[in-house]
Design goal:
With about 325 residues, the chain is α/β, with parallel strands linked by helices. The protein has a single domain, classed as Aldolase class I (TIM Barrel), CATH 3.20.20. About 35% of the residues lie in helices and about 15% in strands. It contains twelve helices and ten strands. A ten-stranded mixed beta sheet has the order 7-6-5-4-3-2-1-8-9-10. The longest helix has 17 residues. The protein is globular and about 50 Å long. The protein starts with a strand and ends with a helix. The C terminus is likely disordered. The protein binds iron/sulfur cluster (2 copies). One iron/sulfur cluster binds next to helix 11. One iron/sulfur cluster (SF4) binds next to helix 11.
Length: about 325
């Protein structure tokens, strides 16, 4: 898995976005990934036997060559996955609609902060994409009723999946994120909402950063019954930037990265990013992590590494220390 960050600009303004501080640092001339760099990354995917092109931003569909990138990816025999805020312009939408539904997935951030005037366009896009679209949500508070999301999935014939992410911190900067102390309250809300998703035949797939102990054993059993596919992981996402830098993830963009080389493969890149981060893996998001049964049993990764690092090096001190 590797994400191609083809656009450093976005048409939404989400306070929980963990890409925004990285994207703001990019120079004007690097607003979009150039075709040559895109082709170099296609080469990386080919060498690594990866049959999927994952297009991200910012908002990837703002790239003037977005439709070309989709066609190039298809011609290279790859499935197309796009992460979007749903404000997709017409040429980009046409390119996606030209892909067979089983070769294309558009993960739409359903709680992206967009303007009122943009809502109509998003509703149209969702309706058009239908089964090509998957609902994504970033949980940024312990209260998040999923009823409107479920209605939208059913109304627009989207895939019956919700990709659920936690609002995670970014090391070295401040974004709106959940503090690990809020996780048990968030967990209760997830369990309660999972009854509604299960009744609608929708399963929930969690993103990185979830931890096992946020759920009690009873809650965990209920989740499993309700189609929540629990996984606890924090490993290199490999965000591939327009300047040839490959990041562990946006949350750790200031710390861990490698440069794309002509003969790079994702296995060796992942190994190197894992090595760079390994010095911080001794701890977890809570003091209890150091001697935790779930961790020893590999049922929990200890939580988001950016949150772990914030435990040991509070954000306030960072401008002095870095
Ligand atoms: S490793 Fe830490 S976060 Fe994970 S279950 Fe154990 S105490 Fe909780
Ligand atoms: S540090 Fe780990 S959990 Fe946090 S955003 Fe990066 S990959 Fe995800």
């Amino acid at each position: 898995m590797a994400n191609l960050i083809i656009s450093n600009v976005c048409s939404a303004n989400c306070e929980f976005c963990f890409a925004s501080s990285f994207l703001k640092k990019q120079d004007d001339h690097e607003k979009f990934m150039c075709l040559d760099t895109f082709m170099e990354y296609i080469g990386l995917l080919d060498r690594s036997a990866i049959d999927e092109v994952r297009l991200l931003g910012g908002e990837p569909t703002l790239h003037p060559l977005f439709a070309d990138f989709v066609r190039i990816g298809q011609a290279a025999g790859k499935r197309i996955t796009v992460f979007s805020n749903g404000l997709i312009n017409e040429p980009a939408l046409e390119a996606l609609m030209d892909c067979p539904p089983d070769r294309c997935a558009v993960i739409i951030n359903m709680n992206a902060r967009i303007k009122k005037s943009q809502r109509e366009r998003k509703a149209y896009v969702l309706h058009q994409l239908g089964e090509r679209s998957i609902a994504g949500i970033t949980v940024d508070s312990p209260v998040f009723p999923l009823d409107p999301l479920i209605q939208s999935i059913l109304r627009n014939r989207m895939r019956k999946v919700i990709r659920m992410g936690l609002a995670l911190p970014v090391y070295g900067t401040r974004n709106h994120n959940l503090h690990p102390k809020q996780y048990p309250a968030v967990a209760k809300a997830i369990v309660s909402e999972s009854y509604k998703t299960a009744a609608a035949g929708i399963r929930i797939e969690p993103d990185c950063g979830f931890v096992r102990c946020m759920f009690s054993d009873e809650e965990f059993k209920a989740l499993n019954r309700n189609g929540f596919c629990f996984g606890s992981y924090c490993s290199p996402i490999m965000d591939c930037c327009s300047n040839g830098e490959i990041l562990h993830c946006f949350a750790l963009s200031d710390l861990f990265s490698v440069r794309l080389e002509a003969d790079s493969e994702t296995d060796s890149i992942r190994k190197e990013l894992t090595r760079q981060a390994s010095v911080w893996r001794f701890g977890g998001i809570y003091p209890e992590c150091e001697d935790c049964f779930f961790r020893r049993n590999e049922e929990c990764c200890g939580g988001c590494l950016a949150a772990v690092m914030n435990r040991f090096l509070p954000v306030k001190a960072m401008s002095v220390c870095l």
